[in-house]
Amino acid sequence: MNQPAKLEPIPLDSPAIQRPDPGAIERVVRAPVLIFIASAVFWLLVSSCLGLLASTQCHRPGSLVVLSDLPWLTFGRVFPAFQCAFVYGWLSSAGIGVAIWLLSRLSNTAYPTVYLPVLSAVTWNIGVGAGILSILGAGGNGRELLDFPFQAAFLLLLAFLFFGIWAVLVIWNRAPDSVFISEWYIFAALLCFAWSFPTANILLNLPQSSIGPAPGVSQGAIHAWFEKGLFGLWLAPLALAVVYYIIPKLVEKPIYSRKLALLGFWAWIACAAFGGMTVFIGGPFPAWMVTTAIVANVLALIPVLAVAANFHMTTRSAVEAVRSSLVFRFVTFGAMIFTVYGFEAAANSLRTISQVTQFTLVTLGQNHLFLYGFCSLILFGAIYYLVPQLLNRPIIFAGIANFHFWMSVAGLTLLWVVLTIGGLIQGFGLEDAKVSMDSISDLLKPFLMLQSLGALIIIVANFAFAVAVALIFLLPGRVRWRSHVPETSVERTPEVTVA
Amino acid sequence: MNKFAKLFFGVFALFGASWLGLVAYPYITFAGLQPNKDPNTGAVAPQGNPGTADQGARVFAANGCVYCHTQFVRDRNEGSDIERGWGERRTVARDYMFDRQVFLGNARLGADLTNVGVRQSDPQWYYRLLYDPQSLHPASVMPSFRYLFREQRVLGQISADALKLNGPGAPPDGYEIVPTEDGKAIVAYLLSLKRNYALPEAPKPAE
Fold first, then answer.
1. CB within 8 Å of chain A, chain B residues 150-179
2. Is B9 within 8 Å of chain A by CB?
3. pLDDT tens digits, A271-289
4. Topology at the third CATH level for domain A22-206+217-478+485-498
């Protein structure tokens, strides 16, 4: 009996709820989920190429003179295009796709309207494409992750509403059953994005309206609130929803502690809502705004550790076969990086440390850790998990996926180490007024070169991922729906429920 | 649905509180700012921005300058900004009250621009920097913005804002390189960046 005492599997044969056959659910949501995922992979490739292009310009500004005649390839446009393609094109699309699947799976219902999510996928992609082209064509707003002109942002909002309405309908029609932790996270993500994205776009990017642009420096506060919400209350909950679903599935055990999960959930929402203003330490704001954010970032260690402890206890007794499985590695590695990120974010928000790291490459490395290490690795795992299920095919070339795993870990590690060390050198340089900006640039050159190497490795990893996913799609294998899928069905593996 | 109602109100309350504190509060507070009138001299500060500067801010935004340049000065005990000569005092909310778009920024791969118009008042310096940053700062990682310039035939006298180039980069005889409308606008914007007046909430250090 090496199981924790608290472990109480939910009775599986609980009062005969008429559950649709899992194959039926997947047949209904297959189209929108696969459209979202396929387009997400496409945007991932686009963004990683843009990222490398932006990075190379940093250490070879002179030798790429040809680029200076191509305004749409200048760093100041390629870099925001890279960020937006990554966050809206890749992470959000993949996150929505996975959320559609999770919601219909966990609600045990498939709302018959498949048109809404399909329409959402199409509109979302048009919005992302239009936004990226506008940024490259001098239409960007000069606001990080709010760079899409308002027309493109409007398309994204419309697409989000299609998805959101569908999600609410699914939740409304769910089988009367307990609520899963994953559903909590998805629900919170829906609510926060629906709130922050239009708010920020209306107050900051709408030209000449009665309420916008927001007065003076309140723009900075609104922007910081939005950006923290985008990371902490949109992307992070989507990724955590995946972990809370997949880990118990793979380990075939419920989540270790429901109470810890609850604590982790609510504490994270509270901390992420208030943690944005640390980017403006020393900025032109009332002191309480920044101080609250510092406290929130330090307190965020509570939910980060609660989540980490819960996952650790759940996976602790996992057998070797599960541990070495590809999906498990991607998801647990991503979840572990969430812990590392939590510690780094807390440290970097302290005034003494931020005095050095603020404005430097350290913060860029921290963002990579969050966006690539945490969110992307988990979504990679989710895609490897669900695409074969949706198509009823195996991962045919697991070797490629394995290569993808190691390359992304290597690329990320290199990037993070290089940006952190380079950023610290930059930060100490900036702190010493006797060190000129020119000599700081000089010191940074080797690190910026290594950054390009890291970006290159990540491109290789991402292309390997695209190949692995494409092979699942393309290689022969008749799509045949099994009436029962034992290893994945909701019935067989108990999952913990909340509330 | 009951469980979702609890969830809805919980998240709504938490995120709503942050909306009140970080969106509604600063919006209302900073909308009510008034420029400062010096009781002795009667001088009003800050003053509004000229129209060309607003136009240039658009160019500044569209070309992503904010991804490497900040526009705020921290107090002496919070960083070396003042020592570096990026300003004589910390910046405060009133400094930005007339800006249609505020570029606080979060990265300093380049210098802070809060007071760049004070440090460099010659448009030629800016043109040269934008055209070929490495000619002024050899180690700089700033990209060249040649697309903000165009080559044209000299008609009569050479234009006042033509670039003074010599060596291999110089245009052929009878031609000159002049800034485009966007190029002129962004320089007008940069020249307008002067937050060097005194405000009661952020006094300049005693002379």
1. none
2. no
3. 999 999 999 999 999 999 9
4. Cytochrome C Oxidase; Chain A (1.20.210)
CA distance A308 to A298: 16
Q: What span, in angstroms and rounded, lies between the C-alpha atoms of A341 and A348?
A: 10
Task: Report chain B's terminal Cα–Cα distance, integer Å.
Answer: 67
**Residue of chain A whose alpha carbon sits nearest to that of B107:** A359
Per residue in B72-125, pLDDT (tens digit) is 999 999 999 999 999 999 999 999 999 999 999 999 999 999 999 999 999 999
Q: What is the pLDDT of residues A44-53, one digit of tens each?
A: 999 999 999 9
What is the rounded distance in angstroms from the CA atom of residue A246 to the CA atom of residue B110? 44
DSSP β-ladder status, A497-498 and A179-180:
antiparallel
Q: What is the 3-state secondary structure (H, E, C) of B17-36?
A: HHHHHHHHHHHHHHHCCCCE
Whether the ipTM is more than 0.85: the answer is yes
Query: Which member of A75, A269, A439 has the closest CB to residue B14?
Result: A269
Contacts of A57 in chain B (CB under 8 A): 141, 143
Q: Does the domain made of B36-191 have the CATH classification 1.10.760.10?
A: yes
**DSSP code of B199?**
B
Interatomic CA distance for residues B186 and B112, integer angstroms: 16
User: Does the beta-carbon distance from A191 to B99 stay under 8 Å?
Assistant: no
Residues B61 and A142: beta-carbon distance below 8 Å: yes
Domain boundaries, chain A: 22-206+217-478+485-498
Query: What Å distances lie between residue A228 and A161, A300, A440, CA to CA?
Result: 21, 13, 29
Classify B42 as helix, strand or coil: coil
CA distance B186 to A406: 45
Residue of B11, B65, B94 with shortest CB distance to A76: B65
Chain B residues close to A269, C-beta within 8 Å: 10-11, 14-15
Buried (b) or exposed (e) across A320-332, using 16+ Cβ within 10 A? Answer: eebeebbbbbbbb
pTM of the model: 0.93
Q: Where are the beta strands (DSSP E) in A164-302?
A: 179-180
- CA A315 to chain B, closest CA, distance in angstroms equals 27
Q: Are A6 and A256 in contact (CB under 8 A)?
A: yes
Residue contact B67–A144, C-beta within 8 A? yes
